[in-house]
Amino acid sequence: MQSYSSIISKELGIPENQVAAVLKLLSEGCTIPFISRYRKEATGSLNEVQVSDISDKNDKLCEIEKRKQTILSTIEEQGKLTPELKKRIDDSWNITELEDIYAPYKPKRKTRAEVARQHGLEPLAMFIMKQSYENITAKAKSYVDKSKGVETIEDALQGAMDIIAETVSEDERARNTIRNNFNYDAVISSHVIKGKEEEGLKYRDYFDFSEPLKRCASHRLLAIRRGESEGILKVHINGDDTRCLNRLTHLFVRNQSEAAQYVNEAVNDSFKRLLKPQIETEFAASSKEKADQEAIKIFVKNLEQLLMSPPLGQKRVLAIDPGFRTGCKVVCLDSEGNLLHNETIYPHPPKNEYMKASAKIWALVEQYKIEAISIGDGTASRETEKFIQDLGLSDDIQVYTVSEDGASIYSASKTAREEFPDYDITVRGAVSIGRRLMDPLAELVKIDPSSIGVGQYQKDVNQTALKHSLDQTVVKCVNNVGVNLNTASKHLLTYISGLGPGIAQNIVDYRTDNGAFKARKELLKVPKLGPKAYEQCAGFLRIEDGSQPLDNSAVHPESYPIVEQMAKDLNCSVKELMTDKVLRNKIDIKKYVSETVGIPTLTDIMNELDKPSRDPRKQLKAFEFAKDIHELEDISVGMIIPGKISNITNFGCFVDVGIHTKGLVHISELANKYVKDPTEIVSLHQQVMVKVIGVDLKRQRLALSMKAVGN
After folding, report:
1. What pLDDT, on a 0 to 100 scale, did the predictor assign at position 450?
2. What is the reported pTM?
3. Distance (Å, rounded) from C-alpha 305 to C-alpha 430?
4. What is the biggest distance separating any 2 CA atoms in the chain, rounded to whole angstroms?
5. Comparing C-alpha atoms, which of 307, 321, 316 is closest to residue 423?
6. Which domains does the chain have, with CATH numbers?
């Protein structure tokens, strides 16, 4: 039997020794971020995506192994497990092939064929399938037995054909024949259910729809399936029936005898009643899985870009959750994101307390020494932005618009209640808007990623697969950035390599009881944080102004002796080595290569010494929408206006131009060249100029183009 490392190596095109090294590290409890950053010598410098792919493939093989054991034990209980059959099952790692092998032995519910077998008609079925005898009717007569429920010759023949039909449907050759046909010819079609036309108007593009399945884009397939689940559409996947039947007939009908005619009839019945529905279900599932994978892939890319959005940093922020009737909720935060003040102002209709609201903002800006203002992008956002800009505040105070997606989910969550037990959801929502500006990553990890509002059809895809991919993405982003051990929330610490909710809470509790951590090694005093967890987490946790300068870098504690030896060799301190580029340029890293530490790790150490605790995220840039555009009615074809990418799908991207309706840049309008993947051209929150090419006031749709607009 092939080893897991051998199978994964062939599937991913990664040398087997590197795959084996990753599997060994994973089995020892190492995390993906730790392996990809701190075990490069062992893995041959595999990156995080490759290590993650190996981990996922390994999990899948483990699931297949469990299924194989179930299949083997079931067949063995029947006394039908031959050495040849066992070898076939052992050697197979294709779940479809395994299920095909298992089909004839799978315990049956009460099928027509099973009833016929109970009536003793299996020998007759096998006799007919040989197609080497005439006078089948005479043969069938000997199976008539009223005590067994076989009343007539017709009953005997029908029962035998039911058995033949099921035998054909369980035959691997037959199943693969129909599969091959579906792979080539399958067409997905949808039709509106009578009487649902008005209710399902948003699915009207699919009321009478047909397309080759292999060309059906994931967003169309997911839309069709959603319409089906909502009871609007009837959906089918069909191959070429004539071709399928011809090929099945060629497989099972051998001559022109009377027996062959019965076999032919059974083959037709098998295809229509058993094989076709089974393969249609199989292709419906596999096409949905493929569409899910594509949608999840896009969601993951969007989420990663969102989590890695540029942070404002530690500034004193005034945040506003805008509104009309209910007013604008205002909060003031210190540079650590702590809530200092909250109240509600009413600068807009119906109250129109403009002067009072203006005076209040001026007072708060002065009292709390505000350095930036964060405004949510929901209802009344543009009006509130104009209100703030018209106040004539200092030019040093930048005004930013921040996405509100998921803020209401957070404000009503257990996490928000724990953080702000004495405040209502409106205050919590405004705090989240402010903190998202300061550090999007630290704030967004508190929200279920599927509620953040990026991606396509996230509620329709496999939720287990989606959660797994999104959780991995959050872990990747948090560990890539690293966190401040003395200020990070429990929720942020939870995603650090080697930690989890329990240890994260213990770290926060220890910090509360003992004050700020002074050194990474102090983590070993935290309850339940043992040597293994310390090994996994230490390199991703930062301590500013601690006793050990390397604690504020991505250099792992296990490598401190290397840096200390470098400093000793240069007759300087570690701190001097970290601040003096001339000293670092004197280092020949080859001198420090050992059995366990190679050039990859030493190169990483030197890069980190050059820019300790560097943040991989980009710089935050201010942005302004067109001042004269507030509603869709203000926009006309031909205009060129600024916008921000708010979402990316596999059919294009949506752009926020400062109105309630997000404009669509179709994939064909992204660039003056063929674009296969929109993420090659645009990224989330990217600031772009777009040309208006279509305005549909009735359907509230806006079509945009990025071609030749100077992006």
Report:
1. 75
2. 0.85
3. 23
4. 105
5. 321
6. 4-105 (1.10.10.650), 112-299 (1.10.3500.10), 317-438 (3.30.420.140), 494-610 (1.10.150.310), 632-705 (2.40.50.140)
